[in-house]
Here is the input.
Amino acid sequence: MNLRYATGLLLFGVFMVTTSIQSLFAGDDSMKIEGKFYFDDTPVSIDIRDGLIERINRLEKTAEPANAKIYIAPGFIDNQVNGYLSYSFTRPGLTVEQVRTITKGFWSKGITTYVPTLTTESKERLIENFGIMKEAIADEEISLSVPGFHLEGPYISPVDGFRGAHPAEWVRPPDWNEFKSFYEASGKHIIEVSVAPELEGAIDFIRKLRKLDIIVALAHHNGSVLQIKEAVDAGAVVSTHLGNGCANMIHRHNNPLWPQLADTRLTASLIVDGFHLTREEVQVFTRSKGPERVIIVSDLSSLAGMPPGEYERFGRTVVVHPNGMIALPSQNVLAAASFLITRGVENMVKFTGCSLADAIHMATRNPARLIGLEDRGTITPGKRADLVLFSFDDGKIKIIRTYVAGKMVYEAP
Ligand SMILES: [Zn+2]
Here is the structure.
């Protein structure tokens, strides 16, 4: 039996049992949301109580006819965000208020959970900014949407192309003592580290990360078949933005893409903004991994949403193009992305022809599973009521309302 069909039957069983006792639980602190269930396009109402999804009720039709066209899905989860609204988690001057502004900005876009990603920088800068992120995550409002942090670099390939836009000056081999100082500064909230497996000491470093239950990702590397296998054996579980952080010219047989695609133990995170990967790469990577082992990430730059023009980043000139592409011309590489994860969901449907439900799972259930967030990522009784209501016309997602832990945090004007 197909897994989706089986889950559908299971959910339907829950509706049958729960609808009959609904009235017993009706109270002032409960809420009901009505719309079209993203999973199978059928009308439902969802009961929320104390911030949790209480039950899902199958409907003949929605009471409010307009709601019949509005999708209800789990809130989006973005596993790789460098910054937003001009604020960067790695640059100097980071404040808790900036993190709050980013968090609320995401709520208005249907993103209810995200993993702030700090990238290659000096030891002092990373310790300082992880300290600020520790303060931020202690804030009740921010902590609802930030489960921990992702460190991408500085332990990545120093080679041009594979290094991407990370500043060469601060790239270095893994250093456990240094990492421990980042981990302590973050209040032990670093939950994911992206590392290059071919670096001296990388495999031992991966084993140590796993002992702390930190998710290990492979990124910005030119690992061989053997190095990638050893990294996965040691506990690496995901390829960060597969197909990116890779030189433009690679060997047709011996390159880091094939072994990562071939290893079924590796999930792939993909930037599906239309610039970082071609349509064909998205098709092939997704078919190769299957819908369960793909996650869509934004890799959002702090310059996302800024007007086209030249900006200073990493001590160099970064160009925001009118089409949204962000590039570092001196290295002929892309410098993170300007489109939100919702664009990735739209493009995944457009490029691969997959169902909207499958694309949504790649941006909700799959990342929740990867980072071990058992309380969210699906619409299931008992999970946190992180929900997004949106229209999907002409292949475009338009956010109408966002709920975090059962509280409405955004409503479109
Ligand atoms: Zn990267």
Remarks:
- Confidence is low (pLDDT under 50) at residues 1-27.
- Residues 76-302+345-370 form a domain with the TIM Barrel fold (CATH 3.20.20.140).
- The chain is about 30% helix and 25% strand.
